[in-house]
Amino acid sequence: MERPEFDDWVAQRGAALLRFAYLVTRDHTRAEEAVQDALISAYPRWKRISRDGDPEAYVRRSIVNADISRWRKFFRRETVTEDLVVAPGPDHAVAHADADAVWALCATLPTKQRAAVVLRYYEDLPDGDIAVILDCSPATVRSQIHRALATLRANVTEEVNR
């Protein structure tokens, strides 16, 4: 069963989906797996997805859900410790160090909060579009972003005071 419209859509939007997945997962391998899982699940339903709604929102929501599922499976297997292991980042440029610090702080956010922040500040999407992607109300999107920013501010203040 061949779906040329699906292939064309993936060729056109694949890079953007992978970029979005990387920003949500913070890992290239997990991002590739999340995009692959989302596209595999969308393929058999593609006619309905493309006819009934916004396929991009559907696939992005699938990417977020795939990462949440992997995260849950990981923490069922692993024991969480209180020690935070931070891999040494490149120190040859201040810009890279700052970017690493921001991503380390963002990594502390729950997946949905991180996804909402990425969609708002990186993808520059309005609350309504983010709500469709995350399958929640616009008020929940605003709440998620508000909580995420409060957490990030508290973590930055804590780091500065050390």
The proportion of residues in beta strands is under 5%
Major sheet: none
Radius of gyration: 17 Å
Q: Given the C-alpha coordinates, what overall shape results?
A: globular
- Work out the number of β strands: 0
Alpha-carbon distance between the two ends:
60 Å
Q: State the helix count.
A: 8
Low-confidence stretches are none
pLDDT averaged residue by residue: 83
Secondary structure topology:
Elements (H helix, E strand, L loop, with lengths): L3 H22 L2 H15 L3 H7 L2 H23 L16 H13 L4 H12 L4 H8 L3 H24 L1
Helix pairs in contact: 1-2, 1-4, 1-6, 2-4, 4-7, 6-8, 7-8
Structure description:
- The chain has 162 residues and is mainly α.
- The chain contains eight helices and no strands.
- Helix 1 crosses helix 6, helix 4 crosses helix 7 and helix 7 crosses helix 8.
- The chain is globular and about 55 Å long.
- The model has no long low-confidence stretch (mean pLDDT 83).
Any key phrases for this structure?
162 residues, mainly alpha, 8 helices, 77% helix, globular
What can be said about this structure in brief?
With 162 residues, the chain is mainly alpha-helical. It contains 8 helices and no strands. It has helices at residues 4-25, 28-42, 46-52, 55-77, 94-106, 111-122, 127-134, 138-161.
